Amino acid sequence: MLHIINKSPFEKNSLMSCFACAKEGSAILLIEDGVYGVIANSSIAADIKAAMAKNSIYALSADVNARGIADKVMDGITLIDYNGFVDLTCDHEKLQSWL
Amino acid sequence: MSIKKLLYVNRKAPYGTVYALESLEVVLIGAAFEQDVTLLFMDDGVFQLAKGQNTTAIDNKNFSPTYMALGDYEVNKIYVDQQSLDERGLSLDDLQHLVWEDEDEDYAEKDSIIIVDRAQIADLMEENDVVLSF
To answer: Is this prediction's pTM over 0.90?
Structure first.
């Protein structure tokens, strides 16, 4: 399963609900305002780190760069481009876009 | 018509919704009509001021340089919530350096951004005539 999050984790609880419901081994992709979840030293950084133990977490680099946070991405997040986005969706049989 | 004190409260991140851009446009229009304008950035709104934004790959206009022009429109009271920065792993250094020129002091360049806490924000909301929320 590929989970896609496009809302800021500081404004919506989509990412936290996703963490709670994602099975071990599922991939989680942050896009649009969802990429604010990548910032190191934020108030939710510990939650992201905990999720990394059971899920691989990706973020769309185009959205990270747009928001001026490229130099704040925490270790363990994999940045991908649009081609990587396509690859991720092809590699997973199912996907869930959290709103 | 008397000059009203307008407080614009910005709480949205810049590209996921259109609120940030709409707010900036209204602020510039209001300033052109010589209103007394104060801006407040809190919650995800602090992300609007992040420096180093590069939108070439998302096909959106990067409107962040426009904040640098606010000083020229005499919009020089720009308040940023400390707690919102802390929660997001940001500091003042991560924001664009916004300045204005004080014509009463031989056009000395002064910082526009003032970091505030929640108690100061409460006062800001009380002392302005109109609060516009974005």
So the answer is: yes
